[in-house]
Write a structure and sequence with these properties.
The structure is a single chain. The protein is of the alpha/beta class. The chain contains 23 helices and 13 strands. A seven-stranded mixed β-sheet has the order 8-9-5-6-11-7-10. Strands 1-2-3-4 form a four-stranded mixed β-sheet. Helix 15 crosses helix 16. The longest helix has 25 residues.
Length: 559
């Protein structure tokens, strides 16, 4: 949040105060108010900045904006560095007094208002208008006493002019949601499809099914791309045995595609039947909030052929459109989970249904870091500013004491939501293996910093191995990489809670220095423990050997 505010408003907002820290806090509080007005009131950045009236004698009002539609926005803002708590009762009480003063026309009690602003207030308040006053802060709590305080102001004003006043509380979670929404896949609305020989199912959800022209499906995918499969657990993965078979059928035997393919499942926020045939031979349907939740591979594959191909070789595909019930939030996830069986689905793919994963992805994307949660051939290899779900899971697992056992002997368990790391049934006291690796409390920053630490270890070892002249030394280095990542992540665990998104230069040096010490200790420990001449790959895959080596290396690091 702090990084976003500085990037967005640096140079436009000036912080005031006697000390550098005071100036920074004042800048951030003003920026919070401006950001709120941009998000919640639809104000331009320039107008949001100009709305600032913060200063001595402001009577608790930090920003004032009057919209073209006569809405008076009054804002008190506080940047709370810890991300918890709320403005003090004294500050809240002062804001209440300032709002009452404005509502009552006592503008002289807010001494930071300009003559122009006072003139605007007089004009607007003589006409039909609304007053929205907002307590805006980067905290999470709001005490009932403050709710009651501001509720009394709303009741007083609305008793005279109904619906004139409204109070808004805008906290850290609201900021997070507003800022990350800009990185979400867009909703797809206004889609019209035609189904032939269609049927309807009325049950817990309404659904229509029938055959659809593959040409129309391809056009839909070409138009919307990955956004069309935003609710699917995977994007189109390009070449695979199943996808290549589909492509061959479309080229050589298109008329049989309907019979060979499992079909497409769409979930929709709403389905409105349009022109329908009484015999159900054909029907047109208008869809809003559309997403493919099963059949991403089919949609992506059919889109590889140009429209002319399907004109010469027409093909049909079975399509099911399900209208989501408004009162069953888990229904979409259940449909997605049970409908996915056409291509082999890895347990990892179901992590894409975790709201936390999407939240971390959007938060990181807002900071210029790409977190690849859904597997796709179009994503390209991870680079300095991107990483994959698999890489994140391994780094997070290695941060835990049971990480080596989990990755060596039970790698699939990383994604298990029903059993803990030992394989026992998960309970409230013993979270699942997946929740141990990706707990609800995990932040996007901590996730990325953990990956960065693991990368330093792995990249350093790989670079050294490539430079070694001895094949044995090179093999030893590479085989030890996972153990070293585990040791360094545990030893440098405090660095995962750092203040910045990226590791600082000093933090990177700390990791590298600790790694040097650990690798030297490992060479000594290996000569003491491993007396046989078995291959390094075998030794470093032996859990008991790894635990013994880890103990000696950790002892050396603590010395």
């Amino acid at each position: 949040m702090e990084a976003y505010l500085k990037r967005e408003f640096d140079g436009g907002i000036i912080g005031t105060g006697n000390k550098a820290l005071d100036k920074e806090r004042n800048f951030l509080s003003k920026a919070v108010a401006a950001s709120f007005l941009m998000v919640h009131a639809g104000v331009s950045k320039a107008d949001a900045i100009a709305a600032c009236v913060d200063g001595g004698g402001d009577n608790g009002i930090d920003s004032l904006y009057i919209s073209p539609t006569n809405v008076i926005w009054l804002v008190q803002s506080k940047y709370i560095h810890e991300g918890s708590g709320e403005p003090s009762l004294g500050d809240a009480g002062l804001f209440r007094d300032g709002v009452n003063a404005i509502v009552d026309g006592q503008f002289d009690q807010c001494k930071t208002l300009s003559a122009t602003q006072i003139a605007q207030l007089i004009r607007v308040m003589d006409e039909s208008h609304q007053v929205v006053f907002a307590l805006v802060y980067t905290g999470t709590a709001m005490d009932d006493s403050r709710r009651k305080m501001f509720g009394e102001v709303v009741d007083r004003v609305n008793a005279i002019a109904p619906r004139r006043a409204r109070f808004v509380r805008f906290g850290l979670s609201d900021f997070h949601e507003a800022l990350t929404q800009q990185f979400a896949e867009p909703d797809i609305n206004g889609v019209q499809i035609e189904l032939r020989d269609y049927g309807v199912m009325n049950g817990v959800a309404r659904a229509y099914y029938g055959s659809m022209s593959v040409k129309d499906l391809a056009a839909l995918y070409v138009q919307h791309g990955h956004a069309l499969v935003r609710a699917n657990i995977r994007r189109h993965r390009g070449s695979s045995e199943v996808n290549e078979s589909m492509a061959l059928t479309l080229k050589n035997d298109a008329s049989k595609f309907f019979y060979f393919n499992n079909g497409i499942t769409l979930i929709c926020r709403s389905i409105r039947p349009g022109q329908l045939d009484r015999t159900r031979a054909a029907g047109k349907f208008h869809l809003d909030g559309v997403s493919i939740i099963n059949g991403a591979q089919t949609a992506g594959t059919v889109a590889q052929e140009p429209p002319a191909h399907y004109e010469a070789h027409p093909a049909e595909v079975l399509v099911t459109c399900i209208e989501l019930p408004a009162d069953d939030q888990g229904f979409a996830d259940d449909v997605t989970r049970f409908r996915n069986s056409q291509n082999a689905v890895s347990p990892q793919d179901f992590a894409a249904l975790d709201d936390n994963q999407e939240s971390w992805r959007k938060t990181l994307q807002s900071e210029g870091v790409t977190y690849i949660v859904k597997r796709s051939t179009s994503d390209g290899p991870a680079d300095i500013n991107s990483f994959t779900l698999q890489e994140a899971a391994e780094a997070r697992a290695l941060l835990g004491s049971a990480g080596l056992e989990l990755l060596l002997e039970h790698p699939v368990r990383l994604w298990d939501r029903g059993h803990d790391v030992k394989g026992d049934k998960a309970t409230a006291d013993k979270p699942s293996a997946y929740k141990t690796v990706f707990p609800d409390s995990l932040t996007a920053r901590k996730l990325w910093r953990t990956v960065q630490i693991a990368r330093i270890v792995q990249q350093t070892i790989e670079q050294d191995a490539m430079a070694m002249t001895s094949p044995l030394e090179s093999d030893f280095a590479r085989q030890s990489a996972r153990l070293m990542a585990h040791v360094i992540l545990i030893r440098c665990k405090s660095l995962t809670d750092g203040e910045t998104l990226a590791l600082t230069t000093n933090e990177q040096l700390t990791v590298s220095s600790t790694l040097d010490t650990a690798r030297n200790a490992l060479v000594q420990a290996y000569s003491e423990i491993e007396t046989t001449q078995r291959p390094f790959a075998e030794a470093f895959a032996d859990l008991s050997t790894l635990c013994a080596l880890k103990a000696l290396v950790m002892q050396a690091l603590h010395a």
